[in-house]
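[Discussion] Sanity-checking designs against the backbone

I'm trying to build intuition for which residues belong where. Below is a structure token string of 283 positions. I'd appreciate it if someone posts a full sequence so I can compare it with mine line by line.
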């Protein structure tokens, strides 16, 4: 793997810089390190390598505990030694979108980048159109990072993107959203879980398995999500990468990697072990 610092500290530039918690640094290290091994290992095997970020943010983030500012996922992916052929970056919040646009125009205008403003669930057709054409003699391999703050990620979005060859790293807010809002999501009129899993009958499956306690809800969602990904042709995930809070060591969310090729799984395992051997837990 090329030498690359997976965390890049920067100075304030006066543009929108969202505040995040310290544990976000684990996420940044993981995604940037995978981008690095991905492009380094695949640059001579594929004609085009594409990075897709469905919740790209502003490009910078301030750590609440230290007030230090770091590049976040999109700009980290643009800072690797072997850049992707194209970047497709999506962001719904207008202020963050404008800050990301200005930072890219200032520091990364030499790269091929397309920005899409709006909800990725609504704009998935635009994302698909932005992916370069490919065919015989013009091979293509995309990597998609999905970093929602909640379960606001429709499985139909992942399904549309995953019809062809594409690796995913998906943040699953199973503790900080699903578990906390268990009673709300269980109500018949709430459709968030149905959209997240792509399963209208999820409540029937939940009751059929005899799972009635809140503590089992996270496992149920993780199991069902994995089964949906397997139906799309993705490898079974043997481990999930859990991020915990620094204060009380409470579980917050999982970073789940999906690939249709065993080599992608091997790449991700190497990255996980090199960053933090304790990050992976049995699925």
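Best answer:
Here's mine. Compare freely.
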């Amino acid at each position: 793997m090329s030498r690359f610092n997976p965390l890049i500290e920067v100075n304030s530039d006066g543009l929108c810089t969202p505040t995040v918690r310290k544990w976000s640094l684990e996420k940044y290290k993981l995604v940037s390190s995978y981008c690095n091994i991905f492009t380094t290992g695949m640059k001579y095997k594929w004609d085009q390598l594409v990075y897709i970020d469905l919740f790209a943010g502003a490009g910078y983030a301030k750590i609440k505990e230290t007030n230090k500012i770091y590049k976040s996922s999109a700009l980290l992916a643009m800072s690797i030694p072997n850049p992707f052929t194209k970047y497709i970056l999506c962001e719904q919040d207008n202020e963050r979108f404008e800050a990301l646009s200005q930072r890219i125009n200032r520091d990364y205008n030499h790269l091929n980048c397309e920005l899409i403003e709006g909800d990725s669930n609504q704009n998935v057709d635009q994302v698909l159109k932005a992916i370069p054409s490919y065919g015989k003699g013009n091979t293509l391999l995309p990597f998609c990072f999905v970093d929602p703050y909640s379960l606001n990620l429709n499985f139909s979005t992942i399904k549309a993107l995953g019809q062809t060859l594409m690796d995913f790293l998906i943040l699953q807010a199973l503790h900080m959203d699903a578990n906390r809002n268990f009673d709300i999501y269980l109500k018949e009129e709430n459709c968030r879980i149905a959209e997240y899993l792509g399963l209208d009958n999820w409540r029937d499956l939940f009751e059929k398995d005899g799972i009635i306690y809140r503590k089992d809800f996270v496992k149920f969602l993780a199991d069902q999500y994995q089964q949906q990904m397997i139906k799309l042709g993705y490898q079974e995930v043997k481990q999930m990468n859990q991020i915990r809070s620094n204060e009380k060591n409470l579980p917050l969310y999982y970073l789940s990697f999906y690939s249709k090729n065993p080599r992608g799984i091997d790449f991700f395992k190497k990255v996980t072990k090199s960053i933090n051997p304790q990050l992976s837990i049995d699925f």
